[in-house]
Amino acid sequence: MLFNSKSLLTVFLLLFFWSVQCQSLSSFELTSEWKAKIESLVKEQMKTPTNDKKKLLIFSLHTGFNHWIIPHAEAVMQMIAQNSGAFEIVLSKDITVFEKDQLSKFDVVLLNNNCSRGERRDLFWDVFNKDASLNEQQKIKKANQLEKNLIQFVKKGKGLVLLHGGIVMQNNSLEFSDMVGGSFDYHPPQQEVHVKLVDPNHPLVNGFDPEGFIHYDEPYFFKNAYFRYNFRPLLYLELDKIKMKRPRPNDKIKYISWIKRHGRGRVFYSSPSHNAQSYENPELLQFLYNGLLYAAGFVDCDDSAIKKRLLN
């Protein structure tokens, strides 16, 4: 009986410490005080002198999971873009901005945690599905057209930035997955992670310490086009360091940020972060700025795909 009691106590303690290590950081409201704190960090970033300002759309609609960081991410990216002096900024949660005549007004689209709903995983369809005047065929046709408009927008030479859950927007679309470099699969519990640099000499990661950085996040894992490795990875996690409840994948690392070409366009994806506390790291702010500049065409760098040959 004593042995059983000790065993039960051990199990309880293990579960307790696991839950403590994997619990989420506390959410908080977007306040003027917090914005002022981030703005003081952003002001340290260098300007990007240009006579040809790019028009940036920051799109922040979600229909599925509501990341509490959405308003914070919108504010942060707006501050970064404004401070650069290189962008005119439009904020929207209206899918009509993806109509061809509206989309053509922009040079860069930023998708801010646009998680879609349920098994369909199609944000455009989610919105049209609320319109009782449309039949099912019309909903699908309209949703497909807006997705096609976005893909053609990038193919023809424009820029696309995706933050964290932005990759989930059209998660079941193989065409969208091919454009952005993958689709969301799942994530282990939130935990402290050591984010490492694929190439410390790459100009887009020049703000980080060569050893990378540590922060609290939900590590995203990916599927579909991800396994083509048709991108230039920037940040990664070592899988043997990640606490998991599911069986551990066979690959040893997971890339969590990358850049890639799609047609003549440029794509930048950053999984960090689920938590607004991460934005208090000036190195991460600089990284997001660098990625935005890349997508807008202000930075030329190595964006060649690694394919599978570099994984071993």
Task: Describe what is shown at a glance.
The protein has 312 residues and is an alpha/beta fold.
Query: Structural class, please?
Result: alpha/beta
CATH superfamily: Class I glutamine amidotransferase (GATase) domain
* General shape: globular
Number of domains: 1
Helical content class: 25-40%
Topology:
Elements: H1 2-22, H2 32-42, E1 54-59, H3 70-84, E2 87-92, H4 100-103, E3 108-112, H5 123-128, H6 136-155, E4 159-163, H7 174-180, E5 183-186, E6 191-197, E7 213-217, E8 221-223, E9 232-238, E10 253-262, E11 265-270, H8 282-296
Parallel strand pairs: 1-2, 1-3, 3-4, 4-11
Antiparallel strand pairs: 5-8, 6-7, 6-9, 9-10, 10-11
Descriptive terms for the model:
single chain, 312 residues, alpha/beta, Rossmann fold, nine-stranded mixed sheet, 8 helices, 11 strands, disordered N terminus, disordered C terminus
Structural description of this entry:
The protein is of the alpha/beta class and 312 residues long. It has a single domain (27-310), classed as Rossmann fold, CATH 3.40.50.880. Helices cover 32% and strands 21% of the residues. The chain has eight helices and eleven strands. Strand 1 (54-59), helix 3 and strand 2 (87-92) form a beta-alpha-beta unit. It is globular, with a radius of gyration of 20 Å.
